[in-house]
Amino acid sequence: MTMNHGNLPEAPHSGELNPAAQENSGAQELIKLLRANTEKSKVTGKKELLKKLPGSLDRAALLDLLSKTANKQAPPELGDISHVEGQKDTYYYDQTIMTVQYARLDALIQDKDIMRTVAAVVRSDSKLYPRVTPFKKLTGMPFWCTEDELLGVAARMKLDEAYQDIRMISASNGVRGFFSLESLSETYAQSLFEMEEVFIPDNP
Question: Dihedrals φ, ψ of 55, to 5°?
Fold first, then answer.
């Protein structure tokens, strides 16, 4: 008697992964890249991932994994991956290595939104420490702003309602910095800045 094999499923080709195994393999390749970037203090944008697909992932598989990550439905390998929304992209990072506060800051840097970046740093410094944010902090890693750019930011902030709390001041030695009126009065900020930039260096 001849058996009818018409309704039997096709056996997988040798070496071919089933869908679940393919997803796990893709998740491992994605987490390897995201973790490596996070260890370098960098969030990773979706546009960057789509431009240079990790490992063997195709576009559809990558978008599916990123969607599941955002909805907390990702494979266990991606359980530590979180994301922040920037103005220009969605950015991913390993939350066991990077705080959400730093991830948001790096997203601003990668968005190249210098005004919002400066405002975020200045408001945080004024509130938490409290202290004035010197230009030298913003001209160094990871911001790499130039002094001319910061002077331009100060000028544009005067004209933007969203940044009316941000002020620029100078110490008696000419060093410039920013502070936020949300947390510091101008008199207190000036006193703090003079102490930090002039008195302490002159009286070690």
Answer: 50, -130
Judged against a pLDDT cut of 80, whether residue 136 lies above it is answered with yes
CB 60 within 8 A of CB 48: no
Closest CA to 61 of 30, 100, 40: 30
Please give the average per-residue pLDDT across 105-111, as a whole number.
Answer: 94
Residue pair 49/62 in contact (Cβ under 8 Å)? The answer is: yes
d(CA 197, CA 65): 49
Asked whether the beta carbons of 105 and 119 are under 8 A apart, the reply is no
Is residue 11 very low, low, confident or very high in pLDDT (cuts 50, 70, 90)? very low
Q: Residues near 143 by Cβ (< 8 Å), separated by ≥ 6?
A: 109, 117, 121, 137
Residues 147 and 136: their CA atoms lie apart, in Å, by: 9
Tokens 């009316």 correspond to 164
C-alpha distance from residue 12 to each of 9, 17, 58, 61 (Å)? 9, 8, 20, 20
In this predicted structure, the answer to whether residue 9 has a pLDDT above a threshold of 60 is no
Torsions phi, psi for 18 (to 5 deg):
-75, 165
Q: How many CB atoms lie within 10 A of CB 154?
A: 18
The per-type count for the chain, helices as H runs and strands as E runs, is 9, 6
pTM reported for the whole predicted model? 0.76
Q: Token pair for residue 131?
A: 């202290």
